[in-house]
């Protein structure tokens, strides 16, 4: 029996959950789905400038887990850009930070609430 997946702490959801070319359908092979936790690794590492180790601490998972999530997220970004596919952000094993308590001490995201887009 496999180990249960550990929830990844996510500080905020994206303002938009769909990106890409405007002239293609968003069904079938014309889209790539990135999970919310993959989005969070891109945000923390590439936007906030955190190391993978710091990102792992923020998300409350192992560094090797972050490394795998980040690698998958970058592949999906590249597929969207190179092949002209729509990138959708949805799903994944995450727990949204509520802005209170110990879990949110290191939050750097100004948007901590659900905005109805996902």
TrEMBL record:
<dbReference type="Pfam" id="PF02001">
    <property type="entry name" value="DUF134"/>
</dbReference>
<keyword id="KW-0238">DNA-binding</keyword>
<dbReference type="InterPro" id="IPR036388">
    <property type="entry name" value="WH-like_DNA-bd_sf"/>
</dbReference>
<dbReference type="InterPro" id="IPR013324">
    <property type="entry name" value="RNA_pol_sigma_r3/r4-like"/>
</dbReference>
<dbReference type="GO" id="GO:0003677">
    <property type="term" value="F:DNA binding"/>
</dbReference>
<protein>
    <recommendedName>
        <fullName>UPF0251 protein LY60_01030</fullName>
    </recommendedName>
</protein>
<dbReference type="InterPro" id="IPR002852">
    <property type="entry name" value="UPF0251"/>
</dbReference>
<comment type="similarity">
    <text>Belongs to the UPF0251 family.</text>
</comment>
């Amino acid at each position: 029996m496999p180990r249960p997946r550990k929830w990844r702490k996510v500080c905020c959801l994206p303002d938009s959950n769909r990106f890409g070319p405007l002239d293609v359908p968003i069904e079938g092979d014309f889209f790539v789905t990135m999970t919310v936790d993959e989005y969070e690794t891109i945000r923390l590492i590439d936007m906030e400038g955190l190391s993978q180790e710091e990102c792992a601490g923020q998300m409350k998972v192992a560094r090797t887990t972050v490394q795998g999530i980040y690698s998958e997220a970058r592949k999906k970004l590249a597929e969207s850009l190179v092949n002209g596919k729509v990138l959708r952000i949805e799903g994944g094993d995450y727990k949204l930070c509520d802005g209170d308590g110990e879990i949110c001490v290191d939050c750097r995201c100004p948007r901590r609430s659900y905005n109805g887009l996902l």
